[in-house]
Amino acid sequence: MSIHEEALTAYERNYKNEFTIGRVITEYKHIYRVLTENGELLCELSGRFRFNSYSHEDYPAVGDWVVLTPRNAEGKGTLHAVLPRKSKFSRLKAGSEPGQQIIAVNVDYIFIVLSLNLDFNLRRLERYLISVWESGASPIIILNKADLCDSLDQKLGQLEAVTFGVPSIVMSALQKEGHQKIFDYLVEGKTGVFTGSSGVGKSTLINALLGQEIQKTGSIRFDDDKGKHATTHRELFALPNGAFIIDIPGMREFGLWDAEEGLTESFKDIEEMAGSCYYNDCQHKEEPGCAVLSAIDTGVLEEGRLKNFQKLQREKEYLERKTNKSRQIAEKNKYKKLNKELKNNPYKKR
């Protein structure tokens, strides 16, 4: 197993003499399947781990390096800690209260899979790219179902206008054409995660990379080219060449969690144009001397891209307001939990 340097250093400094190291393959509601040097173990969290975990981010996620006490004869183990992460791919969890849903951690590449049929959606791609730039991993765009596309050159041109040199791979997973180019990135020791909407062909692609039928594939609703969920949970797979891939369920909604740096990186063309606006606080709506609106009038910038940028900005600002309130509540609950523990354990008062 190839572990990144920061996690290995933490393990050798704090845990090596007492615990074993492993990597989380799958999560089942706080029960984890973990890959170790001696095989896979089904692991639970230690009591101390549970007590010291205050948010979803504190718990293990697929791709995490963890320290554990193995019970090899039983095929089980106990998890004690999560080692430092080098990347974290997240989205806003569903529900009325804001919170983070971790999709995958410790990945080198995030492969954003688009379908070259009616599911080719640049506005959704812009949303994905924001979260990828925030994650610490590198984005790669997979254009799947090339066999169903009659306007490839046109779509490649549209793609380049919003991705600014992000690598892309054109392929057909069903025809098993083009997917070998992914191995230019997924070399030994590297990890990639595949994300995208339902029905874009992620599971078919992963089966092609693995060389065997492991993931179920879903059919397409022909009335709207939308797909069914084939993958139902997150799972890490080892490739024959020593690389790893993580498959995740298709996502019909992708709310932004962290967006500050990612928004700037994904829309750097608009940010650069805004520097030439007459007013420093230009909102790019009706102001005279707006360089961004001028770029739309001359065809340099697509109006839909500006509208999506403004929509995502509003979404980020709203989330920041909601998150500040949620953090105050979480901090209050944290100290309630600590005070309760102190009352129940008088030795900790000393």
Automatic annotation (TrEMBL):
The lineage of its organism: Bacteria, Bacillati, Bacillota, Bacilli, Bacillales. This is Small ribosomal subunit biogenesis GTPase RsgA. One of its GO terms (molecular function) is GTP binding. Its main location: cytoplasm. It comes from the Bacteria. Keywords: Cytoplasm, GTP-binding, Hydrolase, Metal-binding, Nucleotide-binding, Ribosome biogenesis, RNA-binding, rRNA-binding, Zinc. Belongs to the TRAFAC class YlqF/YawG GTPase family. RsgA subfamily. HAMAP family: GTPase_RsgA (MF_01820). The gene is rsgA. It comes from Peribacillus deserti. PANTHER family: SMALL RIBOSOMAL SUBUNIT BIOGENESIS GTPASE RSGA. One of several proteins that assist in the late maturation steps of the functional core of the 30S ribosomal subunit. Helps release RbfA from mature subunits. May play a role in the assembly of ribosomal proteins into the subunit. Circularly permuted GTPase that catalyzes slow GTP hydrolysis, GTPase activity is stimulated by the 30S ribosomal subunit.
